[in-house]
Amino acid sequence: MSEVPSVSPSFDDLRFTPDGLIAAIIQQANPSESGLPAGRVLMFAWMNREALARTLATRKMHFWSRSRKQLWLKGETSGHTQEVVTWYRDCDGDALLFVVRQVGGACHTGYESCFFQGLTFAAAPEVVAEAKRFDPAQAYGTPSA
Amino acid sequence: MSEVPSVSPSFDDLRFTPDGLIAAIIQQANPSESGLPAGRVLMFAWMNREALARTLATRKMHFWSRSRKQLWLKGETSGHTQEVVTWYRDCDGDALLFVVRQVGGACHTGYESCFFQGLTFAAAPEVVAEAKRFDPAQAYGTPSA
Protein backbone atom coordinates (compact mmCIF):
# COMPACT_ATOMS: atom_id res chain seq x y z
CA MET A 1 0.00 0.00 0.00
CA SER A 2 1.31 3.46 -0.85
CA GLU A 3 2.49 6.06 1.67
CA VAL A 4 0.00 8.51 3.12
CA PRO A 5 0.69 11.96 1.64
CA SER A 6 2.57 14.24 4.02
CA VAL A 7 0.00 17.01 3.69
CA SER A 8 -3.54 15.65 3.89
CA PRO A 9 -6.64 17.63 2.96
CA SER A 10 -8.55 18.81 6.03
CA PHE A 11 -11.98 17.39 5.07
CA ASP A 12 -13.58 20.24 7.02
CA ASP A 13 -16.75 20.04 4.90
CA LEU A 14 -17.30 16.37 5.70
CA ARG A 15 -19.18 14.94 8.65
CA PHE A 16 -17.71 11.69 9.93
CA THR A 17 -19.58 9.45 12.38
CA PRO A 18 -18.45 9.30 16.03
CA ASP A 19 -16.43 6.24 14.89
CA GLY A 20 -14.66 8.42 12.31
CA LEU A 21 -16.39 6.92 9.27
CA ILE A 22 -18.22 8.26 6.25
CA ALA A 23 -20.49 6.41 3.82
CA ALA A 24 -19.18 5.89 0.28
CA ILE A 25 -21.16 4.95 -2.83
CA ILE A 26 -19.17 3.63 -5.77
CA GLN A 27 -20.59 4.12 -9.26
CA GLN A 28 -19.34 2.84 -12.61
CA ALA A 29 -17.98 5.53 -14.95
CA ASN A 30 -17.57 3.45 -18.09
CA PRO A 31 -20.53 1.75 -19.80
CA SER A 32 -21.50 -1.45 -18.03
CA GLU A 33 -20.90 -4.74 -19.83
CA SER A 34 -24.02 -6.19 -18.19
CA GLY A 35 -26.44 -4.44 -20.53
CA LEU A 36 -27.66 -2.35 -17.61
CA PRO A 37 -27.43 1.44 -17.93
CA ALA A 38 -24.08 3.14 -17.69
CA GLY A 39 -23.51 4.56 -14.26
CA ARG A 40 -24.32 1.31 -12.49
CA VAL A 41 -23.94 1.47 -8.73
CA LEU A 42 -21.22 -1.04 -7.87
CA MET A 43 -20.95 -1.09 -4.09
CA PHE A 44 -21.44 0.67 -0.79
CA ALA A 45 -18.72 0.81 1.85
CA TRP A 46 -17.25 2.92 4.62
CA MET A 47 -14.16 5.11 4.65
CA ASN A 48 -12.20 6.75 7.44
CA ARG A 49 -9.99 9.81 6.99
CA GLU A 50 -6.95 7.71 6.13
CA ALA A 51 -8.85 5.66 3.53
CA LEU A 52 -10.05 8.91 1.97
CA ALA A 53 -6.58 10.51 2.03
CA ARG A 54 -5.05 7.42 0.40
CA THR A 55 -7.84 7.30 -2.19
CA LEU A 56 -7.22 10.90 -3.21
CA ALA A 57 -3.43 10.49 -3.25
CA THR A 58 -3.47 7.30 -5.34
CA ARG A 59 -6.81 7.74 -7.19
CA LYS A 60 -7.56 4.14 -6.25
CA MET A 61 -10.43 3.38 -3.86
CA HIS A 62 -9.45 2.54 -0.28
CA PHE A 63 -11.97 1.65 2.41
CA TRP A 64 -12.19 0.92 6.11
CA SER A 65 -13.34 -2.61 6.88
CA ARG A 66 -15.53 -2.45 9.98
CA SER A 67 -15.48 -6.24 10.40
CA ARG A 68 -11.71 -6.65 9.97
CA LYS A 69 -10.94 -3.22 11.51
CA GLN A 70 -8.37 -2.42 8.88
CA LEU A 71 -7.65 -0.21 5.94
CA TRP A 72 -8.32 -1.91 2.66
CA LEU A 73 -7.19 -1.16 -0.90
CA LYS A 74 -10.00 -2.37 -3.15
CA GLY A 75 -8.50 -4.94 -5.53
CA GLU A 76 -5.35 -5.54 -3.45
CA THR A 77 -5.88 -9.33 -3.65
CA SER A 78 -8.02 -9.70 -6.77
CA GLY A 79 -6.48 -6.96 -8.91
CA HIS A 80 -9.98 -5.55 -9.36
CA THR A 81 -9.11 -1.97 -8.53
CA GLN A 82 -11.33 1.08 -8.87
CA GLU A 83 -9.74 4.17 -10.40
CA VAL A 84 -11.45 7.39 -9.32
CA VAL A 85 -12.62 9.68 -12.13
CA THR A 86 -14.65 12.21 -10.14
CA TRP A 87 -16.06 12.43 -6.64
CA TYR A 88 -18.79 14.33 -4.84
CA ARG A 89 -20.04 14.98 -1.33
CA ASP A 90 -23.73 15.19 -0.58
CA CYS A 91 -25.58 18.28 0.64
CA ASP A 92 -25.07 17.56 4.32
CA GLY A 93 -21.54 16.21 3.96
CA ASP A 94 -22.12 12.75 5.43
CA ALA A 95 -22.03 10.67 2.26
CA LEU A 96 -19.59 10.53 -0.67
CA LEU A 97 -20.06 9.42 -4.25
CA PHE A 98 -17.10 8.13 -6.25
CA VAL A 99 -17.38 7.61 -10.02
CA VAL A 100 -14.77 5.01 -10.94
CA ARG A 101 -13.33 2.86 -13.68
CA GLN A 102 -13.76 -0.69 -12.37
CA VAL A 103 -11.27 -3.37 -13.36
CA GLY A 104 -12.93 -6.83 -13.49
CA GLY A 105 -15.92 -6.86 -11.15
CA ALA A 106 -16.65 -5.08 -7.88
CA CYS A 107 -18.34 -7.91 -5.98
CA HIS A 108 -16.44 -10.59 -4.08
CA THR A 109 -19.01 -13.12 -5.41
CA GLY A 110 -17.83 -12.53 -8.99
CA TYR A 111 -20.58 -10.20 -10.18
CA GLU A 112 -19.95 -6.80 -11.72
CA SER A 113 -21.90 -5.06 -8.93
CA CYS A 114 -22.59 -5.98 -5.31
CA PHE A 115 -26.19 -4.96 -6.09
CA PHE A 116 -26.81 -7.91 -8.43
CA GLN A 117 -29.76 -9.29 -6.46
CA GLY A 118 -33.01 -7.72 -7.63
CA LEU A 119 -36.04 -8.06 -5.35
CA THR A 120 -39.78 -8.07 -5.96
CA PHE A 121 -42.17 -5.71 -4.19
CA ALA A 122 -42.84 -8.62 -1.81
CA ALA A 123 -39.08 -8.61 -1.04
CA ALA A 124 -38.53 -11.99 -2.74
CA PRO A 125 -35.35 -12.48 -4.76
CA GLU A 126 -35.61 -12.17 -8.54
CA VAL A 127 -33.70 -14.58 -10.78
CA VAL A 128 -30.24 -13.13 -11.45
CA ALA A 129 -30.05 -12.94 -15.24
CA GLU A 130 -26.51 -11.66 -15.66
CA ALA A 131 -23.40 -13.83 -15.64
CA LYS A 132 -20.54 -13.50 -13.17
CA ARG A 133 -17.64 -11.44 -14.44
CA PHE A 134 -14.92 -13.54 -12.82
CA ASP A 135 -14.35 -16.69 -10.78
CA PRO A 136 -14.01 -15.73 -7.11
CA ALA A 137 -12.00 -18.89 -6.34
CA GLN A 138 -9.41 -17.80 -8.87
CA ALA A 139 -9.45 -14.13 -7.84
CA TYR A 140 -9.27 -14.67 -4.09
CA GLY A 141 -8.02 -18.22 -3.74
CA THR A 142 -11.15 -19.16 -1.77
CA PRO A 143 -14.36 -21.01 -2.65
CA SER A 144 -17.10 -18.96 -4.32
CA ALA A 145 -19.61 -17.40 -1.86
CA MET B 1 -49.23 8.74 4.90
CA SER B 2 -50.70 5.40 3.80
CA GLU B 3 -51.48 2.49 6.10
CA VAL B 4 -48.83 -0.13 6.76
CA PRO B 5 -49.76 -3.33 4.89
CA SER B 6 -51.28 -5.95 7.18
CA VAL B 7 -48.83 -8.61 6.01
CA SER B 8 -45.30 -7.25 5.83
CA PRO B 9 -42.41 -9.02 4.13
CA SER B 10 -40.03 -10.58 6.61
CA PHE B 11 -36.81 -9.02 5.29
CA ASP B 12 -34.93 -12.10 6.52
CA ASP B 13 -32.17 -11.58 3.94
CA LEU B 14 -31.45 -8.06 5.17
CA ARG B 15 -29.07 -7.03 7.91
CA PHE B 16 -30.26 -4.03 9.87
CA THR B 17 -27.97 -2.14 12.27
CA PRO B 18 -28.46 -2.53 16.05
CA ASP B 19 -30.61 0.62 15.73
CA GLY B 20 -32.81 -1.18 13.19
CA LEU B 21 -31.61 0.77 10.17
CA ILE B 22 -30.34 -0.11 6.70
CA ALA B 23 -28.50 2.10 4.21
CA ALA B 24 -30.38 3.11 1.05
CA ILE B 25 -28.94 4.52 -2.17
CA ILE B 26 -31.40 6.24 -4.51
CA GLN B 27 -30.60 6.28 -8.23
CA GLN B 28 -32.40 8.00 -11.10
CA ALA B 29 -34.17 5.66 -13.53
CA ASN B 30 -35.09 8.17 -16.22
CA PRO B 31 -32.42 10.09 -18.13
CA SER B 32 -31.13 13.01 -16.14
CA GLU B 33 -31.96 16.54 -17.32
CA SER B 34 -28.61 17.76 -16.02
CA GLY B 35 -26.63 16.42 -18.96
CA LEU B 36 -24.95 13.92 -16.62
CA PRO B 37 -25.28 10.21 -17.45
CA ALA B 38 -28.58 8.45 -16.91
CA GLY B 39 -28.61 6.59 -13.67
CA ARG B 40 -27.46 9.56 -11.63
CA VAL B 41 -27.18 8.86 -7.91
CA LEU B 42 -29.69 11.17 -6.24
CA MET B 43 -29.30 10.67 -2.50
CA PHE B 44 -28.27 8.47 0.38
CA ALA B 45 -30.53 7.91 3.40
CA TRP B 46 -31.51 5.40 6.06
CA MET B 47 -34.59 3.20 6.29
CA ASN B 48 -36.06 1.16 9.13
CA ARG B 49 -38.34 -1.85 8.62
CA GLU B 50 -41.46 0.32 8.60
CA ALA B 51 -40.01 2.74 6.02
CA LEU B 52 -39.12 -0.23 3.84
CA ALA B 53 -42.55 -1.86 4.24
CA ARG B 54 -44.31 1.41 3.36
CA THR B 55 -41.99 1.94 0.38
CA LEU B 56 -42.81 -1.48 -1.03
CA ALA B 57 -46.55 -1.13 -0.35
CA THR B 58 -46.85 2.33 -1.92
CA ARG B 59 -43.88 2.20 -4.35
CA LYS B 60 -42.92 5.63 -3.06
CA MET B 61 -39.68 6.09 -1.12
CA HIS B 62 -40.04 6.40 2.65
CA PHE B 63 -37.07 6.92 4.97
CA TRP B 64 -36.22 7.14 8.65
CA SER B 65 -34.90 10.51 9.71
CA ARG B 66 -32.22 9.92 12.34
CA SER B 67 -32.15 13.61 13.31
CA ARG B 68 -35.94 14.03 13.60
CA LYS B 69 -36.47 10.42 14.74
CA GLN B 70 -39.46 9.99 12.49
CA LEU B 71 -40.69 8.20 9.42
CA TRP B 72 -40.58 10.37 6.36
CA LEU B 73 -42.31 10.10 2.98
CA LYS B 74 -39.92 11.67 0.48
CA GLY B 75 -41.78 14.54 -1.22
CA GLU B 76 -44.50 14.80 1.43
CA THR B 77 -43.97 18.58 1.69
CA SER B 78 -42.39 19.42 -1.65
CA GLY B 79 -44.31 16.99 -3.88
CA HIS B 80 -40.94 15.73 -5.12
CA THR B 81 -41.71 12.05 -4.68
CA GLN B 82 -39.62 9.09 -5.83
CA GLU B 83 -41.49 6.25 -7.50
CA VAL B 84 -39.66 2.93 -7.20
CA VAL B 85 -39.02 1.08 -10.47
CA THR B 86 -36.70 -1.69 -9.24
CA TRP B 87 -34.72 -2.38 -6.09
CA TYR B 88 -31.75 -4.48 -5.08
CA ARG B 89 -29.92 -5.63 -1.97
CA ASP B 90 -26.17 -5.90 -1.90
CA CYS B 91 -24.17 -9.11 -1.48
CA ASP B 92 -24.04 -8.95 2.30
CA GLY B 93 -27.56 -7.61 2.75
CA ASP B 94 -26.69 -4.40 4.58
CA ALA B 95 -27.30 -1.87 1.80
CA LEU B 96 -30.20 -1.33 -0.60
CA LEU B 97 -30.33 0.30 -4.02
CA PHE B 98 -33.58 1.82 -5.28
CA VAL B 99 -33.93 2.88 -8.92
CA VAL B 100 -36.63 5.56 -9.00
CA ARG B 101 -38.49 8.07 -11.12
CA GLN B 102 -37.80 11.38 -9.41
CA VAL B 103 -40.40 14.16 -9.54
CA GLY B 104 -38.75 17.61 -9.47
CA GLY B 105 -35.41 17.35 -7.70
CA ALA B 106 -34.15 15.13 -4.90
CA CYS B 107 -32.12 17.66 -2.92
CA HIS B 108 -33.63 20.02 -0.36
CA THR B 109 -31.31 22.73 -1.72
CA GLY B 110 -33.07 22.66 -5.10
CA TYR B 111 -30.59 20.57 -7.06
CA GLU B 112 -31.51 17.42 -8.94
CA SER B 113 -29.15 15.32 -6.82
CA CYS B 114 -27.83 15.71 -3.27
CA PHE B 115 -24.43 14.87 -4.80
CA PHE B 116 -24.19 18.13 -6.76
CA GLN B 117 -20.92 19.25 -5.14
CA GLY B 118 -17.96 17.90 -7.07
CA LEU B 119 -14.58 17.95 -5.31
CA THR B 120 -10.99 18.09 -6.55
CA PHE B 121 -8.36 15.53 -5.57
CA ALA B 122 -7.25 18.07 -2.96
CA ALA B 123 -10.82 17.91 -1.57
CA ALA B 124 -11.59 21.50 -2.63
CA PRO B 125 -15.08 22.22 -3.99
CA GLU B 126 -15.47 22.47 -7.76
CA VAL B 127 -17.69 25.16 -9.28
CA VAL B 128 -21.24 23.78 -9.54
CA ALA B 129 -22.08 24.13 -13.23
CA GLU B 130 -25.66 22.88 -13.21
CA ALA B 131 -28.70 24.98 -12.33
CA LYS B 132 -31.11 24.26 -9.49
CA ARG B 133 -34.21 22.38 -10.53
CA PHE B 134 -36.57 24.18 -8.18
CA ASP B 135 -36.74 27.00 -5.66
CA PRO B 136 -36.46 25.49 -2.15
CA ALA B 137 -38.26 28.49 -0.61
CA GLN B 138 -41.27 27.74 -2.78
CA ALA B 139 -41.09 23.97 -2.32
CA TYR B 140 -40.62 23.96 1.44
CA GLY B 141 -41.78 27.43 2.49
CA THR B 142 -38.33 28.13 3.98
CA PRO B 143 -35.31 30.13 2.82
CA SER B 144 -32.91 28.37 0.48
CA ALA B 145 -30.07 26.50 2.23
A few lines on this structure:
2 copies of one chain form a homodimer. The first copy, chain A, has 145 residues and is mostly beta strands.
Subunit arrangement of the protein: homodimer
Number of strands of chain A: 7
In DSSP terms (H or I, runs of 4 or more residues), the helix count of chain A works out at: 2
User: How many whole angstroms does the radius of gyration of chain A measure?
Assistant: 16 Å
Please give the alpha-carbon distance between the first and last residues of chain A.
26 Å
Structural class of chain A: mainly beta
Q: State the major sheet of chain A.
A: 4 strands, mixed
The general outline of chain A is globular
How is the largest sheet of chain A built, in terms of strand order?
A: 2-1-6-5
The string of secondary-structure elements of chain A, in order, is EEHEEEEEH
Taken as a percent bin, the fraction of beta residues of chain A is 25-35%
Helix content of chain A: 10-25%
Which runs of chain A of at least 5 residues are low in confidence (pLDDT < 50)?
A: none
Give the mean pLDDT of chain A. 89
What is the largest interface, and how many residues per chain? A-B, 42 and 42 residues
